[in-house]
Input
Amino acid sequence: MSGLASAGENILIKKEFESFKYTPFTAAKVQEIPQWKGIGRESREALEIVSRVFTFRTNNYVVNELIDWNNVPEDPIFQLTFPQKGMLSESHYDQVRTLLQKDGAKKELEDCVNQIRKTLNPHPAGQLSHNVPEFNGEPLEGVQHKYRETVLFFPSRGQTCHAYCTYCFRWPQFIGRSNYKFKARLSDQLVSYLKANKDVRDFLITGGDPMVMNYEGLRSTIEPLLTEELEHLTTVRIGTKSLAYWPYKYVSDPESDDILRLFERVVESGKHLALMAHFSHPAELKTDVVKEAIRRIRNTGAEIRMQAPMIRHVNDSAESWRKLWTEGVRLGMIPYYLFVERNTGPMEYFEVPLARAHEIFTEAYRKVSGLARTVRGPSMSAFHGKILVSGISEVAGEKVFVLKFLQGRDPEWVGRPFFASFDPKACWIDALRPAFGEERFFFED
Ligand SMILES: *Cc1c(COP(=O)(O)O)cnc(C)c1O
Ligand code: SF4
Output
């Protein structure tokens, strides 16, 4: 049978997952995590200090189902959601610790934390200033339009997440420091903008995590897109980490059936619905509830594509990607992007050199079947576009990175190979020099 399962069939199967209530844990509530008392003093101190700079948030599913507490602090999911000492430089760490111990230093601590944050490149890739489109001379708030075919929308109610990834490039948003204007709902201007732009194929709803929104928030964002006047819009994408951090959203939360019916309506309208699911590690695919969530979503006719950055201490091994892609395909998902960790926030702790990332990617890629080789990477989401590290080679006697735009500010750049001098330590395009003694890359004019 193909097509849409009835909601009735979905409802029957969800019974066994009933009654899981979302319980968030923040720095103030970390003592309520039963396993917390059992872990080392250094990890507990690191959370107290580092969470002053980066926001900490996790939840009962991540804590009880995903983290192996016998393996803390090395456990990859612990590294993924709990702040670690190495996320601050030693001097920053000591400054915060000293001020925390000093009486009456509240203001001093606040200033110190703000100073530290400023040194951490809070606004990479010119997201805020360069990509906001205009309609009738007015900027469209909550919207980015960087690549011709795809418009990004940031609904204001979708700007948090079910848990926060320690390395997240959206960290300024979570500490309330983003200058970016989020839009409460899909505006008439935005819909008019889409109607007028026949080149736009994809509408990508992003966050944070839009799947923290309730049914009404999702409905009001998605339904206006289904009008016949937006025929040229072929795809609605939802970027989300909810499958990894809170799969009950699709299985047993009070509105899960309503949300799946909304997905069915998108598919029935003739559009492709793609969940761009952020999966970092195979541990996130092991629970029964995530498998059930994937099954139910796929029953609506939506497809799930997997993407994540490569993060040191979390998933910087070929085996973890091989397993992730293989398991993902088994569950019916499509491997999509492997990203390079962005140059912001606690990057020194999490970054993987491009050469190493390419090596890990290639080793994993060689060990999966063709069905998992839909994945592309390592890819940098940089100011000029998405840049693929497509190989390491020797050209005219020079060891080089072979690079290629997968997306470009100028669509003409896409697919054009270019070369950078090999540098085993470089972690981002900024650190690369053009090969063959050239002054600048072709796109830098
Ligand atoms: C990644 C990205 C997209 C989507 O690119 P695809 O290659 O189509 O997945 C769109 N806009 C921005 C700003 C992006 O970073
Ligand atoms: S789920 Fe995405 S937006 Fe949310 S904290 Fe993780 S990386 Fe950031």
Q: What stands out?
A: The first helix runs from residue 7 to 14. The pocket of pyridoxal-5'-phosphate (ligand 1) is lined by residues 144, 146-147, 150, 152, 204, 381, 386, 406-407 (CB under 6 Å). The chain has a mean pLDDT of 94.
